[in-house]
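sanity check both lines:
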Amino acid sequence: MKKSGNSLLGSKTSAGSPRVAIAIMAAGKGTRLKSQLPKVLHEVGGKPLLAHVIAAATRVVPPSDVFAIIGHEAGRVRAAVADTGVNFILQAEQRGTGHALMVAQSALSTYDHVIVLSGDAPQITPQTIARLLNFHLDQQAAMTLLSADLDHPTGYGRVIRRSARSAEVQGIVEEKSASPAQKKIHEINAGFYVFAVPQLFSNINKISTANPHGEFYLTDMAEVLRKARLRVVAWKTENSAEVLGANTRAELSFIDFQIRMRKCQQLMDEGVTIFYPATCVIDNDVEIAPDSVIEPFVQIMGKSRIGAACRIRSYSVIRDSEIGEGVLIRPGSILEEARVGASAVIGPYSHLRPGSDIGEGAHVGNFVETKKIRLGKGSKANHLTYLGDAEIGAGVNIGAGTITCNYDGVAKHTTVIEDGAFIGSDSTLVAPVRVGRGAYVGAASCITSDVPEEALAVGRARQIVKEGWVREKRAASKPK
């Protein structure tokens, strides 16, 4: 197959190439999950089930040729994956998988072939999708179904082949209708298909709702097409895990574990050390460069990127953050939408909130919280400090207990601390305020006005000492 951009298949690569669409079934409720959340929006590996399937699909065909068929909580589903660039088709009344393609007929009828994927099977790979399509084209089939061998196939429809060595499918027998002999078959219908579009839509109205749920089942197309003397075949994947759907909370948990273990294995193969990977939560889209070390019980989520030779110590949580090379993140630190420059040291127990930009070689230490700040190269805030809405230069020392008072009850204001300034412990900087280059702020000062360069600012009440005050107080409190 020819490639188009990042795709494994280009549907418009040449005049003679077949036009291929992908339809993703994403309209169901998922009642067995017992959730108000649409089934395909439950997360594994750090993103919704449907997002995983879309990611695989758009490696095979361009997003413009991918159609997500949505129904239950359609607006919510659309919003969750709107940035993928795929198309959406509304199945307002959910009457089965066959009905979903009936609803999609006008959108798909201009294509030569359509691949049908399940929106709740996040482990499907683009390679398997492409191989299924290739097999379908080679076999010149009207319908090709993806199958897999399961050790415990109970509950799945069994694939009945014409013979053991034949690609042709004689039928699909559901669990409730299977004979004892058929229940011993381990090859199951995975619920992924490729159809020749003309044959599909010229016959789809022949499937019926004569079943306990009164729905149109896409599996019935196998029998319909065979009766029309059209070719129905099956291709078996060697990796049965990738066809598994998430129908229960237990299945969600198991699939999440599998995805995360594969991610850890991939990272370790690429030169990352991960101690006790089963204790770590690393999302599928995370990037970590070689020679970094991830200690036990670390969570790295979203689209976080970690540079080479970093060490992320236990119980740290990192989400959608960028970390430069050689960074040390000590235990218990939390980073959210933050950026950390090379060779910086974070923690222990630091909290970098969104918009925190920590410069090269800077230190953010014990119980320091930052939000929407820039901390310059080599600057330090090592203890018990809150820095919000601040521009802090290079080589600045922030003493323990310092607070930038950024909110006046109506609006947020910025504190500016220029290069080389020294902020004494327990200082309060009331924004908007600027501390000039090389200036000093005395400990326990409340600073409400700008401090010029290389000046000393002390803003505190004069100390008063009253000799004998305690003795007098004690005497006055004695009963008379």
Q: What stands out?
A: The radius of gyration is 31 Å. The longest helix spans residues 249-269. The chain has two domains: 20-243, 272-457. DSSP finds ten helices and 39 strands in the chain.
